[in-house]
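dumping the sequnces here before i forget
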Amino acid sequence: KAGVTQTPRYLIKTRGQQVTLSCSPISGHRSVSWYQQTPGQGLQFLFEYFSETQRNKGNFPGRFSGRQFSNSRSEMNVSTLELGDSALYLCASSIRFRGTGGGYTFGSGTRLTVV
Amino acid sequence: QQPVQSPQAVILREGEDAVINCSSSKALYSVHWYRQKHGEAPVFLMILLKGGEQKGHEKISASFNEKKQQSSLYLTASQLSYSGTYFCGTEEYNFNKFYFGSGTKLNVKP
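..and the predicted 3d for all of it:
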C-alpha cells in the first residue's frame, strides 16, 4: 500500500514569505503528526491531528499552523518565514491516535530552505 | 518532556553488540524505537507498552522498565545495515504527549 506522501520534496523561500506543506497519510490512518528536524535540535514536535482536530501542539510560535481535512490529509503552514525555519519537515501517520498499538510511519519529508 | 538518550554516539565493528538507553522523568504509557539512515525518514522498529516487556526485530530487541521509566535497545551481532541514528519516542500518561529523544548515532564498521 502507498506510504505517507509529502509534497513538495524541496522548497526554497525568501524571508518573510509564507509556505504550505502537504501530507497524505496512509489510507485508513487518521492520526497525522508534524515534526521539524534540524541537525542541532533533532526531531521537534509541531502538532498532531486526529479526525480533523488538533490534539496536541508543540512549543512553536503561532507562525506555525496546520489543519487536517476530512480525508485525513494534512497541511502545515508557516507564515513570515525566518532563516531559522530552514529544516526538514516530516509528517508521520498512525492508524490510531498517539500511535498506541502501532508506530508512526514517516513520509520522506519536505526540505525547506529560507534565504 | 523530552527523554534522555545515551550514549550520543557509538562506533562498532561488525558482529559487536550495543545497548542504547532511553529514560524519562515522566510516567510513560509506551516507548517507541525508530532508526533513521542518512538522508532518509525515520523507520519504526518497535513499540513497548507494558512494564518489563521485551520485543524483538531481527537481532534488535528492547526492554521497558515501567517502574524506572527506562527503555533499552539491544543490538546484537551488529551488521553494517544497522548504521544510522536511533531515536526513542516516549508517550506520557498525562497530557498524552509524545516526545522523541535526541538520538544515538550508531556507526558499524567492517
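Chain B touches chain A at residues 29-30, 32, 34, 40-47, 49, 87, 89, 91, 95-103 (CB under 8 Å).
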